[in-house]
Amino acid sequence: MPDALLFKRAELPFKDCVTPTGVTQTARTITTKISKHMGGGMEIGEDVCIHWTTLYDEILFIHSGSMIVRTDKGELEAHPGDIVWLPEGVTLDYDMTGRRCEYFYSLTPIDWAARNNMAEP
After folding, report:
1. Backbone φ, ψ for residue 54 (5° rounding)
2. Which residue among 4, 12, 49, 72 is least enclosed by CB atoms within 10 Å?
3. What is the DSSP string of 34-89?
4. Separation of first and last alpha carbons in the chain
């Protein structure tokens, strides 16, 4: 039977997340070992702008710092306590140029990379 889990901030497994447009530090904590449906974790970006098209629905919760989420329809400036919704298929920039941002993310489906014949960055 499943049970609740606690992930201590000091013990999160941060690793480089390398994309074609930049590098962040990502701690993927909710993985396929835990869930069949959704993924999640913490990410830290500093002085980086990541250009991406989402292959999943994603929610961001800004923990500290700030970022600008830029799409072809405008900019969203997110600060601590803010929540950002990103639907599957939106092309955007996660812009942390000249700033640092720590945020929690949750996404579904968890196997988005395999469904698109790619490895997670």
Report:
1. -65, 135
2. 4
3. T-SS-EEEEEEEES-EEEEE-SSEEEEEEEEE-EEEEETTEEEEE-TT-EEEE-TT
4. 32
Nearest alpha-carbon partner for 111 in 30, 17, 38:
38
Q: What is the reported pLDDT for 1?
A: 54
How high is the mean pLDDT of the chain?
A: 95
* Phi, then psi, of 81 in degrees rounded to 5: 95, -15
Q: What's at 85, amino acid-wise?
A: W
Contact present, 10 and 66 (Cβ < 8 Å): no
Residue 13 burial (C-beta neighbours within 10 Å; 0-12, 13-18, 19+): exposed
**Threshold 0.85, pTM exceeds:** yes
Given a cut of 60, whether residue 81 has pLDDT beyond it is yes
**Residue 21 falls inside a structural domain:** no
Domain with residue 51: its CATH number is 2.60.120.10
